[in-house]
């Protein structure tokens, strides 16, 4: 996925988690790989859906980046 965030508007996390197989995922959007900490609860983030869905590897950005920076990185 290339765009804003991690593609939540295109595919629900529950669907990703329930895939029979999940390929390596490239999530090239602002903070697509960041995890939110909720005090004593486990961290949560959209990237976890891919890992729980069986993806062996997820490449994602941990902070906000510009479109030009992502274009340069992915080239």
UniProtKB/TrEMBL annotation:
UniProt entry keywords in alphabetical sequence: Chromosome partition, Hydrolase
Q: Which residues form the Peptidase C50 domain?
A: 1-41
- Report the InterPro entries cross-referenced here: Peptidase_C50 (IPR005314), SEPARIN_core_dom (IPR030397)
- The chain's coiled-coil residues are none
Q: Any stretches that span the bilayer, and where are they?
A: none
Give any single GO term for biological process.
Answer: proteolysis
What is the top-level taxon of the source organism? Eukaryota
PANTHER family in the cross-refs: EXTRA SPINDLE POLES 1-RELATED, SEPARIN
What protein name is recorded for this chain? separase
Q: What is the lineage of its organism?
A: Eukaryota, Fungi, Fungi incertae sedis, Mucoromycota, Mucoromycotina
